[in-house]
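INFO worker-7 received task bundle
INFO bundle size: 2
INFO processing item 0
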Amino acid sequence: MGWDARIKRLDHADFFTRAKGTLVTVMNGQFKILHAQTPHNRPYMQKRYDVKQDSAVLKMKYYMKM
């Protein structure tokens, strides 16, 4: 199973999606954890929340498999 090195910011979602049926997990979209040590560092937070590339990889992996 492992981690996909192409995904840097949405890796948890990808891992748990692939682990479905193997691991027991609970997801709640309203519950969020801020991992950043510096939430007021604007350049860091912009990089942290720039998920366009990760989203494209996930879309290719799960939605373009027709």
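INFO item 0 finished
INFO processing item 1
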Amino acid sequence: MEIKMTEKQFRRLLDLVYIGNWILNSTRGDDRIRQYDEVESLVFSQCLAHGMAPLTELYQGQLIPSQAFAEGGIHEAIMAYEDTIFFEILAQELALRDMDDPPITEENYDEVMNRMNAYLGEFEAHGTDHISVDME
């Protein structure tokens, strides 16, 4: 297979591949999905032919994203996504809890969204500062 793209598009593809593999494998420990590691390695190996060698390094016989790549801002994008998802899931869980955990239906969708938006407003203003858990 051959895909034609500009250098800028290829650089963005590197970000997408890294983020995708991070999501799939970063929490798996030794149980990584090796096929995704292999695809990441294959894509990053193309850096050598495109003047982007500093974005890759050799590790255990495979080319992987380099420390310079990983420290170049990509984790800030991942963390921003994780923060957003954390607060959205927390808002949804709290909204549903407040409603005695019903499934979301057409009939209660607006109420769920209103409650979620109230929680999201609170989180935007105060983060988790006003959250407490009774550990009895």
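INFO item 1 finished
INFO post-check item 1: Strands lie at 56-59, 62-65.
INFO post-check item 1: The chain has four helices and two strands.
INFO worker-7 idle
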